[in-house]
Amino acid sequence: RVLAAMAEDGWLFALAMGTSVVAAIAGVLSSQHIGAIFDIMADGGHPSHSLPRAVAQLVGVYAARALLTFVSATLLSMAVNRLSTRLQAELVSSLLQQDIAFFDGAAQGALAQSVAADVKEATAAVKHVLQNGLQMLTAVLGGACSLYLLSRRLSLLMLTAIPLTAIVFQRFGTYVRALSRRERAATAAAASIVSESVGNIRTVQSFVAERLEAARFEEELRSALALRHTLGMLRGAFFGLLAFALHGVTALVVAVGGSLVASGQMTHGDVSAFLAQTREVISAYGGLTRLADEARDGALAMRRVVELLERQPTLLVRQLEGGDERPAAATTAGLRPAHVDGRVEFRGVHFAYPQRPDVPVLRGLDLTLEAGKVTALV
User: Fold this and answer.
1) In contact, 111 and 165? CB cutoff 8 Å
2) CATH code of the region 2-310
């Protein structure tokens, strides 16, 4: 269903993805230009105009990357915004066709959230996966090839260390995010206590339960506060270890690369290019791990949206569009009388809400509604 909606703007998605890949390739090439600049500075035998030309080429690559990123982001934003608009319109249309029994068992806030928040979260995940995910994947693969061409020995060392380090930080980040969700849940629980107490203030004061409600609120606040302290400590440890890991990789590249330069296997520019490319690969690989979590959340939101889009009403619903009657798919067809004279007669009607079948509302109701008269059931 979602792919069919995306197909209407397939050319926009294709152009955005293509420019995103080219922008990532430009990022890989920029490291080579950095290495060339360092080689020129290390070797005084080059003509005087070589350095300005190399710097101009590097600036040109950066400018091309920035322009391609702008084009990709603009096209993808247009496509995703149109996709979001179509999904929201289809979702509201599907909701309006549902039976009353469906709304009796569904929370109105949850339905409104599906129309707004779920569609927004799902389409945002589509945007980030198609733009950032594709760009990061290209940067990782292209960067790995570039590292291998610069130095097989050093690249094998880095391509072994980087994934292992990224996995450790990804697990750490997953635990921190789970703890953050617990903290938000505790904060929401405290807020719900306030809402319930204020909304039922007459009952609270009638039972002289002001202190009890305040104590409940303070208990939830203490739970949330303890989680916030733990989160602050873990986030500090995360960013501290991340900085240490990045500097450690830099030190490792400089140490091993320096020995390779001394043995004549690499140049100063090769080491500089390798270091710049390594940082690009680390950044892209870390972004992919974070994007995987975001994609999972987006997939869950998209599943909720699709479930509502594909839900069919129990009775056949006919709607007039442009003067034509178009029946919607349904599990049970309703009756369509050939002639209606305005007189409606009910005989032995029994009714209970589907969510409360043990609480009957009507029992054997007999009622005749004459044409042109208004009748009220009290």
Assistant:
1) no
2) 1.20.1560.10
The structural domains of the chain, with segments of one domain joined by +, span 2-310, 339-378
| Residue appearing with tokens 């703890």 | 179
CA dist 263 and 265 (Å) reads 6
DSSP states along 204-264? HHHTT-HHHHHHHHHHHHHHHHHHHHHHHHHHHHHHHHHHHHHHHHHHHHHHHHHHHHHTT
What is the three-class DSSP state of 339? Answer: coil
CB 312 within 8 A of CB 330: yes
**Number of residues assigned to the chain:** 378
Rounded to whole angstroms, what are the CA distances from 363 to 59, 99, 349? 82, 21, 6
pLDDT tens digits for range 220-263? 888 888 888 998 898 888 888 878 887 888 888 888 888 888 88
Q: What is the CB-side half-sphere exposure of residue 377 using CA atoms within 13 A? A: 8
pTM over 0.85: no
